[in-house]
């Protein structure tokens, strides 16, 4: 399909572009404005995805995608909004572009960070863009839905900037991290719902986080778990952009942990460049501007031997009376059986499986799967049992980890609750229920394992 596509033939005739990327040549169809020029790239991407969908079906079981960051050079926004049009006109795709109209000054509402980063960003904004700025500096815990409604509806905002995600929790203790995650998630959800209902009051909605995507071990050692406190904003923003595409013009930008003045100038440019605003998930680091793309994982897979189950120790599976736990329990036993068969000279596998849940009761719909697990475990002389452990409570996880340390050799976190609803009908109570057994439980597990050393835990 790719070889037969005419745009690909055009792309072959165009020299490789630096920054904007080769994809531009295939995506442009002689647009007439800077807005159309950039949006046609998204249209080309959608066309490509639709074209190859049928081709992916036969190999879908062998395909997996990871997110990667690609550098995309883009000019800083100018005071007259001409930089994007000028840049695109200079690319070798013969686009006939018209300069956009001169921008008007905007009223801006900012949910500000304590460190003053948002203020520095707006100070670096292009000339003639900022009219008035209202900084909301109250702690998010002090703002309820009525406070947010009053803020959103009191003015026709050109830009609402949610910058409190730039603040890291005071420490890496769970007591400091959990309230930050809750306040950010609750406020962001309510704010976006309000903007969707009052879309005339908000032209653009920007959200900032600080290095939540970094894989630099030095940064993680220095900042610790609190570096990820704002990471839920990314997943929430993705959902919002899909469900509320017509109602909310949203951009997610992740910035450097310690941004330079030039980095913040680029963030300001990203917020005020209307042609590119919200078209990509963007990372702006001291080293440049990057956009997120999904790519095949085959080039990223570690070339290591196949996974082998541990020969001994305790393997815990959260959500122990759910369907996923039964699937993983049986899979572990089948892997143990294969390991015994392939290594007859070694002692047989003797690990223990603990399935954790609030009730430790097998539900009727899982009874058959559980019976199969018990039968298989008996043939292998492996112990499997249900244990009461409410993973939504830190003290419950702490008791379990302390009891089985230092023998824990694996943890599979399958706990989860579905509280499905479209965003306009979603409530914080439902959201909080989902957070409790999934992300909070994960943080509690991490925190407890930091204190209890289990040397064979991979």
From TrEMBL:
Domain called Ketoreductase (KR): residue spans: 314-451
Keywords annotated in UniProt: Phosphopantetheine, Phosphoprotein
Gene3D superfamilies: NAD(P)-binding Rossmann-like Domain
Coiled-coil annotated spans: none
One Pfam family hit: KR
An annotated GO BP: fatty acid biosynthetic process
A molecular function GO annotation: fatty acid synthase activity
PANTHER family: FATTY ACID SYNTHASE (PTHR43775), SI:DKEY-61P9.11 (PTHR43775:SF37)
Protein name: Ketoreductase (KR) domain-containing protein
């Amino acid at each position: 399909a790719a070889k037969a596509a005419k745009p690909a033939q055009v792309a072959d005739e165009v020299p490789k572009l630096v920054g904007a990327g080769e994809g531009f040549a295939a995506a442009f169809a002689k647009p007439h404005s800077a807005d159309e020029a950039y949006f046609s790239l998204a249209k080309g991407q959608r066309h490509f995805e639709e074209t190859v969908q049928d081709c992916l079906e036969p190999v879908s079981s062998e395909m997996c995608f990871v997110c990667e960051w690609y550098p995309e050079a883009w000019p800083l926004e100018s005071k007259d909004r001409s930089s994007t049009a000028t840049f695109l006109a200079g690319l070798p795709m013969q686009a006939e572009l018209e300069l956009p109209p001169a921008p008007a000054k905007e009223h801006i509402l900012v949910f500000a960070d304590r460190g003053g980063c948002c203020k520095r960003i707006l100070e670096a904004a292009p000339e003639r863009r900022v009219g008035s700025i209202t900084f909301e500096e109250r702690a998010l815990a002090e703002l309820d839905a009525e406070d947010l409604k009053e803020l959103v509806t009191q003015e026709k905002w050109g830009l609402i900037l949610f910058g409190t995600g730039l603040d890291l929790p005071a420490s890496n203790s769970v007591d400091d991290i959990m309230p930050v995650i809750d306040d950010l998630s609750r406020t962001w959800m309510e704010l976006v719902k309000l903007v969707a209902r009052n879309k005339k009051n908000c032209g653009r909605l920007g959200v900032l986080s600080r290095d939540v995507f970094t894989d630099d071990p030095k940064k993680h050692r220095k900042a610790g778990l609190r570096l990820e406190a704002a990471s839920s904003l990314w997943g929430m923003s993705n959902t919002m952009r899909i469900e509320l595409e017509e109602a909310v013009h949203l951009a997610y930008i992740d910035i450097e942990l310690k941004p330079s003045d030039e980095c913040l100038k680029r963030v300001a440019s990203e917020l005020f460049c209307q042609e590119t605003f919200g078209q990509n998930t963007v990372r702006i680091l001291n080293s440049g501007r990057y956009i997120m793309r999904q790519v095949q994982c085959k080039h990223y897979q570690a070339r290591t031997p196949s996974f082998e189950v541990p020969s001994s120790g305790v393997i815990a599976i959260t959500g122990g009376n759910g369907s996923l736990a039964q699937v993983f329990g049986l899979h572990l036993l089948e892997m143990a059986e294969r390991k015994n068969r392939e290594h007859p000279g070694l002692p047989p596998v003797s690990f223990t499986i603990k399935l954790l849940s609030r009730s430790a009761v097998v539900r009727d719909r899982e009874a058959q799967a559980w019976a199969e697990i018990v039968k298989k475990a008996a043939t292998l002389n492996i112990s499997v049992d249900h244990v009461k452990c409410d993973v939504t409570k830190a003290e419950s996880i702490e008791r379990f980890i302390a009891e089985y340390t230092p023998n824990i050799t694996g943890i599979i976190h399958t706990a989860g609750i579905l509280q499905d609803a479209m965003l306009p009908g979603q409530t914080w109570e439902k959201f909080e229920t989902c957070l409790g057994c999934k992300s909070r439980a994960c943080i509690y597990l991490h925190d407890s394992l930091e204190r209890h050393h289990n040397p064979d835990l991979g």
